[in-house]
Every structure is written in C-alpha cells, then in structure tokens.
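name: query_chain
kind: protein
chains: 1
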Amino acid sequence: MVSESKTLATMSERERPKMLNIGCGRTHHPAWLNMDLEAMDPNVVEHDITQGIPCPSDSLSAVYHSHILEHLKPEEGIDLLRECYRVLEPGGILRIVVPDLEKIAELYLKMHAQAWAGDRQSQEDYRWIKLELLDQLVRDCSGGRMGRYMATADLKNSQFVRSRVGDEFWVCRSPDSSSPSQHRLGRRLGRLTERWREKFVRCVTRIFLGSDAVLAFDEGLFRSRGEIHRWMYDRFSLRDLCQQIGFDSFEVVTASTSKIEQFGDFELDSKENVVRKPDSLFIECRKNRMTGQANRRVA
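structure:
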C-alpha cells in the first residue's frame, strides 16, 4: 500500500474526508480531502500523484480530478485511474474532467470550412481553435501561443475565446496575474538548490554541447513541469479506458449534474451557474460493486 504523507498521517480515520479532490489548485472545499503537487492553501495536502494515492483501498466514496489526466503520459494516466479504482469503495464514484477532444475537433472542422468560404469572423475563431487543439501539446514556454493570443489588445473574437476557456481568459488579459501553473513553476524555480543545479547543468551543457543543446535542455525542463498536455481524450476513449480498468455505469454529465450527493454545493465545476472550464468533457463512472482490484490488462 502507498505510504501516507506526514499531513495525512496526522489525521485520524474519522477526521479524514471520504471524498478526494486530486490536483485541486485553488478550487477546493473542506468537505473533500484536497490534494495537489504544491499546496496554495493550508487546507491542501501536498502530494505527487504519480507516486500513487496515499489512501487505503476501498476507503473513499468519491474521487474527482479536473484537467489533470491530460497532463500525464498515457501510461501514467492509466496508473492514476487504477489508483482511483483501488481507493474507491465498491459503488464509489469517479468524476473526471478533461478538455473535450471531440468538441475541439468538431469546432476546428466547422471553423476551417467557414474560414475557407471567406467568413471573416470564422477566420478569427479558426485561429483560436487551432491553437486550442495544438498549443498545449507543443508549447515550450509558460502560457504558450494561447496566452499571447488572449493578451492581444485588439482581440476580435473575445466572446468566442471566453466561451471556450472561462476565467482563464481574464487571467491572461491581466498583465500582473499568473495562472496556477505559472505560480507553481515560479515556486519551483524559487528553490535555491534547484536553481543552482539547473544553472550548473546549463553551464556544463553549453561547454560540451553548445547553445542549441542548452535550449533543448530548457525546453525539456519546461515540458517536464506539468503545463503541457501529454495526451487528449474524448468520450469514447475515456469510456474504453475506464471500462478496461473495471469501472461501470459510465456517463457523460454536465458541470452541474452529478451522482455525488450535493455536488453543486461544492462549486468545483461551476459557480453561480457559470462553468469554470467550458471546454471540458465531464464524465462519471462507478467502481464495480462486485469486484475488488482494478483490471491490470490495459493497453
């Protein structure tokens, strides 16, 4: 079993919430056990989820993670879903939120056709949806081309972009704000030992391999820090993956509908009827009531 972190170890079994919010960032609720790689709040437990979930098997009634799965390599994503299955009690609910590849692809094709036909507004929207499809897969600096696009002073399709990214739009429009991922990146770089280690490696790399190798090192370092998308999912691929692991009752839901009791009160996916991440696919499934361990044969 995965060993518990020091913070979790100080909680009694009675004190520990039975619902887990993985990669919560700034969006969390005291009714949940909130967990992230680096805590932005004292009520958040710091833990690297690639090391497993530090909870006993069959101990949770619900597990929730939003815009986490796509940042993991496919094999790491499978491991995470296996861990979700392990810690859920029979009949427990897994709720997953990811960027909706199907919807992005549909919009890309629609805007491409209309842009090709000469529609000026569609040409602007096409430029955005192409970035939405590709940028977080290939970017080599924080915010990428999407961030620069949203920061443009005379943005001609702000309404369309806002309808896709929600609050993230205003974060990028504000020159003195930073996104949660930028905040975490800044904290990591602020650690003295890490900064000097990177500086040393850059110097050695430059001496032996040249400036191009230093650029490659910096890009690789950035890509390892969690901002980029390492995979994308649609409703079919996500259902297939969850069912292979052992989940059943797979269902596509909305930001405000859930089989988790009082989910709307927690305001994790929507607040005051405004969806936090409008570009998302929302799904729920259950741990099979009749089986225990997750299926280990996942391609």
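note: Confidence is low (pLDDT under 50) at residues 1-6, 177-193.
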